[in-house]
Amino acid sequence: MALSPLDPSSYSRPELAVVKHVELKLNVDFEKKQLTGEALLTVNVLDTIEELILDSSNLTIESIETEDGKALNFTLADPVPNYGSKLTIPLPEPATANQHLKIRIKYKTSPSATALQWLEPKQTSGKEYPYMFSQCQPIHARSILPCQDSPAVKFTYNAEVTAPEPFTVLMSAIKGNSSEKATFRQPVPIPSYLLAIAVAVLESRELGPRSHVWSEKEEIDRSAWEFADTEKYLQAAERLCGPYQWTQYDLLVLPPSFPYGGMENPCLTFVTPTLLAGDRSQADVIVHEIMHSWTGNLVTNRNFEHFWLNEGFTVFLERKVGASLIADKEEAHRSRDFSSLLGLQELTETINQNLGPTSPLTQLVPDLNNTHPDDAFSRVPYEKGSLFLRYLEDLVGGPEVFDDFLRSYLDKFQRQSIDTEQFKAYLLDYFKDNEALKSVDWTTWLHKSGMPPVIPAYDTSMTKAVTVLLAKVNDTSSTLDYSDVLTFTPQQMINFLQALIDQDPLPLDRLRNMGKTYKIDTSKNSEIVYRWLRLCIRSRDESKLIEALQFVNNQGRMKYVRPIYRDLYSWEAVRERAVENFLKNEANMMHVSAYTLRKDLHLKE
């Protein structure tokens, strides 16, 4: 069932009346684990309405009134699990097109709000103070404020937040200078999923003219070093996409339970501490979040069926910009393709092993009528989407012509929310004289499940060394030596380990010998550690079980935690221990991690 005509996951009806601005006043209470306050919504009426419908999840609504204080009635329907409740506000008299309404809602959040994680001091680095942060994407903003919780709706916002000393409040907006209260303004319209807040005892360091990094003091020096090139990435992004429109680009390094690699909250990207590799090798995540400043944040998917317009574009741009930082043109091309091949490896595992090639969730544009966006989340929109764009780029004549199209597309649709048909129509109109586009099988690309119908002719020169090494490791009569991997970049090592994951498990003694000889078993790079632990589990190395469980307990990045739990679940002898470990640690996880892991481990909700 779709909750509304435009968005299967939202009750709201923005085609009738749309929220354009929000004034938030919030108070942070760590003891009760709740936000209390009010939201003043400015609504533009588009069609005659007798009521306003909003999304709400686990909120206690204390009162609703007009701007001048006249009380309004409201009804809060019974909640639908994981979607929250429909909040209906009948208007005293019908409102007609072009009218502006202002509605003030006084409310408080629940301690179990799905968008918020309230960490105990022991879950932080400093161990002294609690820490709260949000994750609203895809549809959890409704647990922080009553809103039209659909990416079809974009609004500006101002906020005033009161928190006790010595806490710092940060939001996805530009921070004001008031010493009394934390004030914020976001003058660029955003979808509700980009509303973000974090409250903790934090320090900051300047990274560049428009960037600071924030973290607990224990991580601040490592964070400042790891992300020192942020301004360089921003400038490279601007060269491809045009001026950066969000004024500031700050980073917040969160505690380890943060479920994603990064979240592109405007003005303040949230990142996982697993990026602190000590070698700047995970910079691609920062470039990815920077690219979202255009694709996702300026041009936004209309609902989460079109999530590839956010993520496929962002991965595509991330690899272009990453390559543009390499001076040697040939090397840049090889490097971009090598990243794309790594992505293709991950896509292949997702489609052929995790979801299954006939799963409707492997379609580029899935139907979410009976599917929660959190259940649809996978590498598919990222990698199948980015591969589709690369196929189109090659087809129309390469970056020389496609880069101009990209800028034109960003210019045309900036500050809007669009769907796949609008992208397709714009592309076909822009390249109307290009005969090659007539060969695109749109139905298969967009609406058929399984692997993409065409794989671009990527340059494989950087994978050749990996292929040679793979053959050597699989030939158990050959002797391994550290010189085999001496010249490998971290990315090549990741590509090699991923290739081993995609084949039958190695005999355990061979795997252990490899781990030791190639110094994989002592790596500090989380991308390498994660794949190494998966290989140990797949080769049934019981001596690694405690390390694998510690790894999933010490950080909550779903990219790592979900595959490891799935691998443990497939190993019958340790399945019970894995489930037991999850249940013991579930309380320390953010909602989305616990929710998806329960499904991975076949537990009831």
Automatic annotation (TrEMBL):
Active site: E289, Y382
Family matches, as Gene3D superfamilies: 3.30.2010.30, Neutral Protease Domain 2 (1.10.390.10), Peptidase M1, leukotriene A4 hydrolase/aminopeptidase C-terminal domain (1.25.40.320), tricorn interacting facor f3 domain (2.60.40.1730)
Record's keyword terms, sorted: Cytoplasm, Glycoprotein, GPI-anchor, Hydrolase, Lipoprotein, Membrane, Metal-binding, Metalloprotease, Protease, Zinc
CDD domains named among the record's database cross-references: M1_LTA4H (cd09599)
Residues binding a peptide: Q135, C136, Q137, P259, Y260, G261, G262, M263, E264, R557, M558, K559
Database matches in InterPro entries: Aminopeptidase_N-like_N (IPR045357), Aminopeptidase_N-like_N_sf (IPR042097), ARM-type_fold (IPR016024), LTA4H_cat (IPR049980), M1_LTA-4_hydro/amino_C_sf (IPR038502), M1_LTA4H (IPR034015), Peptidase_M1 (IPR001930), Peptidase_M1_C (IPR015211)
All copies of domain Peptidase M1 leukotriene A4 hydrolase/aminopeptidase C-terminal, residue ranges: 461-601
UniProt-listed SUPFAM superfamilies: ARM repeat, Leukotriene A4 hydrolase N-terminal domain, Metalloproteases ('zincins'), catalytic domain
Cofactor: Zn(2+)
Name of this chain's protein: Peptidase M1 leukotriene A4 hydrolase/aminopeptidase C-terminal domain-containing protein
